[in-house]
Every structure is written in C-alpha cells, then in structure tokens.
Amino acid sequence: MLLVQPQVRQDFPQGNAHVVESAAPLGECARRAAMGHPVISFENVAYSYGGGELLSDMTLRLAPGSFHFLTGPSGAGKSTFLKLCYAELLPTAGHVSLFDREVRSLGRDDVAHMRRRVGVVHQDCQFLDHLPLAANVTLPLTVSQREIDGGDLGDLLAWVGLKHLADALPPSLSGGERQRAALARAIITDPEVILADEPTGNLDWEMSLRLLTLLVELNRMGKTIVVATHDLNLIRQAKAQIAARVLRISNRRLQLAGADL
Amino acid sequence: MARDFLPQLLRRDRQSDRVVPRSGHTAWLTSFTAGAMTFLAVFALALSMAAGRMADRWSDALARTATVRISAPADQIEMQTRAVLDVLATTPGVESARALSDEEQRKLLEPWFGPDLPVDSLPLPRLVELTEDSAGYDADGLRQRLLAEAPGAVLDDHTRWRRPLAVAAGRLRLLGLVSILLIGGTMAGMITLAAHAALAANAQVIRVLRLVGARDSYIARAFVRRFTLRALAGSAVGALLGMIGIAVLPSADTAGGFLTGLGFTGWGWLLPAALPLLAAVVAFTATRFAAFSRLKELT
Hints:
The complex is a heterodimer. By secondary structure, chain A is an alpha/beta fold. Chain A is built from nine helices and ten strands. Chain B has a four-stranded antiparallel beta sheet, with helices on one face.
C-alpha cells in the first residue's frame, strides 16, 4: 500500500495569454487545496478482469494542482488505472472517489457531470470522424449545451498550433496533430483534472516536448495532471521544469518511483 | 415522456443534431416502414369506417320495420292480403302497414332477375310492409293472429337476419381497428430494430460522447429526434398516397357496393391525416425506449 500526497502548490500562476480564460477552476482548485481535499482518491482499490486481478490494493490521493507521471510495462494496467480515475471502469474492490464522491454512488448523469470536470486525452484520441476538428474540440461544450465563444476557440486552437486546421476532418490529421487536438478538447471545459494516456506515444521528440510544454503550462495554471507514459526522457525533461512525481505500476501494485529517475 | 415529445421534436439544436452521423440504411428503413405502414393503416381505417357506416345503415334501414309474406293460391291472395291488413290495423304497436305494389316487388327482384320480370304471371308471394311504433308489437301474438286469419301469412320481423349482419359489420369494424393497432405495433417494432441498428453502428460515437460528459438524455435526444422526424416524413407520404388511393376509388353512389363505399366523408378525412402524428408518437416512444435501454448497457 502506498500513500501519495504530493505537496499542494501555493504558487498558482495568474493565467496565460494563450489559454482560454475561465471563471471557476482556479478558485475551485485553490479552495480544494486549502481544504486538503484530494481531487481523486483510491482506497485499497483492486480491479479484476477475466478472472485475473489486474490492479490490487492501490491507495492514492491526488492533491489539486499536482503533476504525476504513471509508468509501467505494457499491459501493467496504466490505461485501466486512468479509466478508474474517470469512472469508465468501476473497481472490483475498494473505493474510488472523484471530487469527494464515491464513484459507485454516482448515477449516470452524475458520472457525465463529473467527466466535464476531468479532461481526458486518450491513447487513440477518439474523435468523431464526421465532424471537423473545431467541432470535435468543442464537443464537451456542445454536449453540456454551453455557449461556444469563437474567439476563445481560436485562441485555444492557436495555443495547440492547430488554428489553420480548424475545418479539417480528423482522419486527415497526423498523429501529433491528433494528440494536440485531443489535448485542446480535454481542456476546453477548463477541467480541474487532466488525464493523458500515452499522449506522446506516436510523436517524435520535438512534438513530445511541445505537448509536454502545454501540459506543464496547464499545471502551472493549477490543473491536476496525470500522464501515463513509457517515455523516461520525457519524465526527466518534465522533472527539470516542475515538481512532478512518478508513480509506477508493477506487479499489479502502485509504487512511488520518483527516486529512480 | 409525453411532455418531452413536442419540445424535443420542435427544438432544433444544430450542434447536437450533427454529433450523430447520418446513417444510410436505417434512415430509409425508418421512413419506408413508416410510409408503408401508414399507407396500410389508411386502408384499414377506411375499412373500419365503411364497416361502421354499413352497420349503422343496415340498422337504420331495417330498424322498426317488418314484412309479412303471404303465399296462397291465386284466388285467395287478395282475400288473405286484406285479412292481414285488417289484423295489422288492429294490432297494438303497429304504426302503419301497406301492401307492396307489383312495381315495388319488381324493383326488389330486379338485381337478381333483371328489369323485365313478368311479375303478374309468376306465383310470387305478396309482401306487406309494416312499421312499428315506439312501443313495439308482440311478434308472437301477431304470428298467432295471422295464422288464424290468413294461413298463408308469415311474419318476418328482420331481426332474425338483421342481427347477424349488424354483428358481422361490427366485427369488421373491430377488425379494422385491430389491424390499425397491429400496424402500429409492427411499425414500432421495425423502428425499434432500426434504432437499435443505428445505436449499434454508432457505438463508438456514443462512447466518445459519454467520455466527454454527455448525458444519456442528450445522446438519446439526438437519435430520437432524428428517427421521429424520419417517421413523421415517411408517414406523411404514406398517408397522402393512401388518401389519394381512397379518393380515386369509385364512389358508392355510382356503383353501389360495399367496396365502393370504402372511403372517408367530411371530417372523416381528418383521421388519416392524423396518422403521421400518431406514427411520430410511436417512433418517438420506440426510439426513446431503444436508446435508453442501449445506453444503460454502456459505461
């Protein structure tokens, strides 16, 4: 069992010129940080699939504003761990809480509402191929029936370097463009937590660094970040810039691996 | 659910309409099914209404009337006819009675034997038509009196064959209504299958929508609205074609049979015109049920 409680950041930056301005999140993060409430917590969590236990006895509290890398060999359960974090999967044992609410107690509408507070960058990006990039990026706003500000969207697409591809369909995008578009979609609702599953898996080093820079900027704005990755160089690069912690899944259990890197 | 029907149907959200891609075969299958079923429903409705009218007409035409048939040798027929009329004139409950003329009898037989039937030379029974008053008469007592006064007279009070006809017409009307229910049920089943197919084909779309925070009601609405509008459009075409088909049938006045009486009159034309709305309600309910049951299977 491992208890991870990274230091709560005290130095939330005051925004970034490239990022869509938002009203609530910084205040919410600061409030949660002040109260010491984790945004995501696992208590003795296990997950079994097909008769075998994939994850076992995981205890973890992710503080608001923290930055974590999640590593481990292929098939170790990194994606499963992230899916437990946004309630796509339910633990077979133990308790997972999102924003202080036990996921098993959430109704389907509650889960939908929670997911608006968690931006996810999936390994395979998962776009709606019949919609142009801009519509895919604004999808979280569309489904929550919130207004889409064209100026903010333009700023966001410019921030991830995709403004010129706003009308392109996802199948025509390169791997790096898709990953950046997925990041833009993940943050357009100004979520408190961003989960990224192998976001640099298909990218070259230069593009990986660019994506890392975006994630670091978001963390400096107070977002809680969890990145599942194999890329140790990327982790070292990040640790040079921020106080990132490294979690490792090994033998179905979670370990703090920061000292090894 | 009923209160959601009109708002969901009328409120167009261009963004949410786009999130589900337009799928080919389920689109035309829904429209075609709704159109074909509504076309059949128009005819079932026309059949039901025609049967209803026929039952009413038979009841009205035959109600409170009866016939006395007098079969007697030629030299006694006039005497027995007078005796029957005398008996009827003194029977409580009989409002009026009269013997049919040869011309009237010829017209009665004309559909079977043609217009040139020599009634005078045939040993046809004489018919006396009576109309009862509101109190009615005692049929058994009248038969006894007729037997005593005119041995060749037989009272036919019509109920013997009117009742089965009226029952048959009523059953026909019921069959028409049952047909409409079956057609509606079949349409609901077909649209449910089409909706399930569309939901299965768009499983990945639904998964993405769920992952970015879409509620089930939002996802369902995108499908429900589309299927409802498709059913409404298909059904409107089917209803229009059915009404045209009914309108071009020969009228009852010129041909005078049951089938030619198949149709609508006056306000009755509003009923087939309302079928598309009914189809839309069926499609709305079926798709909504299919969508929510399918979505509950997904995380």
